Amino acid sequence: MSKKKRLIYLPLGGAGEVGMNAYVYGYGPEGAERLILVDLGVTFPDMDTSPGVDLILPDMSWLIERRDRLEAIFISHAHEDHVGAVSRFPDLLDVPVYARAFTANIARGKLKEAGLDERIVRTVSPWPEMTEAGPFSVGFVPISHSIPETSALVIDTPEGRLVHSGDFKIDHTPLVGEPFDEAVWEEIGKSGVRALMCDSTNVFSPHAGRSEAELEPQIEELFKGAKGMVVATTFASNVARVKTLALAGERTGRSICLLGRAMRRMIEASVETGVLRDFPKVVSPEEAQGIARESLMLLVTGSQGERRAASAQLARGKYNGLEMKEGDLFLFSSKTIPGNERGVIRIMNQFSEMGVDVVDENAGLYHVSGHANRPDLAKMHALVDPQMIIPMHGEHRMLREHVKLIKEGRREGIVAVNGTMVDLSGNAPSVAGFVETGRTYVDGSVQIGALDGIVRDRIRMALNGHVVVTLILDEANEPLGEPWCEVMGLPETGRSRAALVEVLENDLGQFLARAGAKTLADDDKLEQEMKRIVRKVAQDEIGKKPEVTVITSRLA
Amino acid sequence: MSKKKRLIYLPLGGAGEVGMNAYVYGYGPEGAERLILVDLGVTFPDMDTSPGVDLILPDMSWLIERRDRLEAIFISHAHEDHVGAVSRFPDLLDVPVYARAFTANIARGKLKEAGLDERIVRTVSPWPEMTEAGPFSVGFVPISHSIPETSALVIDTPEGRLVHSGDFKIDHTPLVGEPFDEAVWEEIGKSGVRALMCDSTNVFSPHAGRSEAELEPQIEELFKGAKGMVVATTFASNVARVKTLALAGERTGRSICLLGRAMRRMIEASVETGVLRDFPKVVSPEEAQGIARESLMLLVTGSQGERRAASAQLARGKYNGLEMKEGDLFLFSSKTIPGNERGVIRIMNQFSEMGVDVVDENAGLYHVSGHANRPDLAKMHALVDPQMIIPMHGEHRMLREHVKLIKEGRREGIVAVNGTMVDLSGNAPSVAGFVETGRTYVDGSVQIGALDGIVRDRIRMALNGHVVVTLILDEANEPLGEPWCEVMGLPETGRSRAALVEVLENDLGQFLARAGAKTLADDDKLEQEMKRIVRKVAQDEIGKKPEVTVITSRLA
């Protein structure tokens, strides 16, 4: 007897956080569903929880173990939290990766950089073209967001139609890319939609979102009043914004210069794929050096205060031979993502010290969000008119709030965080089980588990400092000389005004002098006791309990 | 010939940052001015720049070296960034510390805790009472802020009157403490004010500030709709807010329980000093456990997401036998200070996972700021009507913006960051020189300089991991066995799939086998070479260059 077939949804990343999107859909008999993956993104580390880490990836083990059941990967748009991990799991790349031209361009670049075969990326045309993948048929429906060619996915299945919103906003004048189209969504909804998986990022924003086009006159007005050089930053991928900024610069009589690798690459990709037209001619940094300040505008990377990006470098001094001066204007045409405030504020103050006027988006004049606010989400729910809605892409509190909104609209919805397998086959979503998920860290050139203890050790050293004790024992297990201590990240002297290492070595020496033969013969015992002594002495002397490494060498 | 006397202002902390306020005023011949200090506060560390540090203090060396010229210390109010360091510089405490009753109570508590003589703190009555201190005569003028008995200081000098605003807002209905009083300020201004030193924190807030009293009905409305337990957090020192919250709890039929040491201590100090009256009777955590959830309200510490405070502990589980459950309400009646977002958001999501409804101040309904916004600053400038204004307490960009506002009002003003000695004797402020300033870290029980390299080493270990190499050499400078490596905070294996320590030890062993007698006899050379090898191998294997400590032991 064959098992009943079912339709499942399983977020492996992005549900319970903003970032590292990775959503699995499956159809078939339980445990033998054919699978597709929507998006494969990264998220970014921070000093508090992941110091030294370069990138954070979703843990894709569940899917890798079942890769023989994977039919295809679909990428909704080219933001790093949707496409950034596409080259990080070669085990998943036996299947085609589908995306629209601009996104495909970015994805191929990543595969090429990683030495992988970029030909697996297949460019698709937008809705109503459909791509077959096992039991699924998938269409890319253009939708407005903050990067070109963003798409929602229509996923037709034997159990009916699904809509995966991806990141979106309702914008009828997005400047670059297709406007939000109610008619298309009504048509898609008309034939009946089983489930909508819906972006939750801005569910706490109570007012309807604003259009990209609103910014143009305000930005131009700002630039008109600028006496010196104008510098503006935004996400390089927000090509519409970059264009708005560049046009405002051009109209106020300035030559445009792009600074920062991501800025140049995004504009190149946009021009190559035809999504960006009428972009002003740009000058190189070398040419820019010869242009009068009041006739120059720089468009730079680093809107989030990233230390190595162009903004931060300009805040510290020269970048590509260019530098900020008193009377210049710097515009953050971007929102600061929570957690990045310190870096952004540092840059603002560095510019202030130079006499540069810094303008940010606080007044709401120079930035609009790329995500649907609460009323816009309700509108999308109504347009698609699905039987059930599963909130995705958001922190837990956002998913939970989104479910409240869904219930206000008298529809079925549940909170499904990463690892929650949801059965969409019934009249309402039901939890079919939980799979283990988590985070993988890209650390230098190595992938490590978030729970491997490696980063925990780094955090401990950062908080507590590190003491290394070296002890040499001879063939008869007698200490050869005194134990040695080296400290890193700790004060040199404490309460007793003697050098901390001397106090430590002295107390360790006394312990060894008293230690019996049995203790001296036992590495574990020695280590344990010496750690205890170091922590106790350090607590007395400097009020801290450091991390301790004991190295016992025995001459054989 | 005696030098001309002058009137100086010298910020040692608080000018160029929000936090650790410490302002020196002096009058007398150049280099022999008699001095007073206004405020002595702390600021708080963060993982990005000061991991493991407990508190940050202004570097008071300049004043300590001149303490024979110090007449007195005046504390404007009891916030940590104004009074928090009062017990940290015993060398400055040969002079009296003047404060109003509530502030004095808090200051005495700090001195007592540090084992210092609390009797140096003298309680003063408010304006028009004046306290003599050398050439200065100082009055505490009640002003509205977000902690009881906040005062601006009127400082009369032989060169005329100064006004030091301290932290303030314009609030005519502050609920606890004295309302802002235009008449008093007009009177103070009438006799002529030479200079106003003025709070800059909210200069970027464009609209007039709102009163504490506006919150009452909104908070009560919120609590009325709550079905389960209500929990609210705010700064414990915001006694007016704590009272508003408690009264709203009482009026909606709830018993009030205070959780967290700071919350209990602040309310005790407020009741003891008479600033807080009609506070509802509170129940202990033990009693609270016996009260039905819908009849209970907790007032808790930890509005900034601090890991050890009551909020964070409730987000992780039980605290004092109490815990949050589905259907409870948690209110952040507070603004999240930039840099604390991650911690606050973590707590919000933990509560969301429990099914607790979290409400924050985003809608502007449940929190008002304690600082004067831009129009309120302009109003204060006009009321005091001084000859010149020096912006204080704020990041560089705030001081700079404040000067713009001052110039709009056609007054003299300059940006004077920490260490800038300003001569106030002339018709306009002029820079008289710069003194060295900085930050001192309280690290465990030790004070260390911010530039000592200790914290830098911790940050490096956190970013790069730490490798310890141990090498033993015999009497003939021949290596005894192989060198040993221990790694902390690094992956165990890398590119070659062999253990990282083995690859390291192998390459170090090969180097030693080839090393000449001269190298083997030279500790510095050995260390340098072995560090180089470790970094190179680690870069090849794991793509990171770790911190390296080399310990060479020579058997003598």
TrEMBL record, chains A, B:
Keywords: Exonuclease, Hydrolase, Metal-binding, Nuclease, RNA-binding, Zinc. It comes from the Bacteria. Residues 19-219 form the Metallo-beta-lactamase domain. Pfam families: Lactamase_B (PF00753), RMMBL (PF07521), RNase_J_b_CASP (PF22505), RNase_J_C (PF17770). One of its GO terms (molecular function) is exonuclease activity. Transmembrane segments: none annotated. The keyword Nucleotide-binding does not apply. PANTHER family: RIBONUCLEASE J. This is Ribonuclease J. It comes from Aquicoccus porphyridii. The lineage of its organism: Bacteria, Pseudomonadati, Pseudomonadota, Alphaproteobacteria, Rhodobacterales.
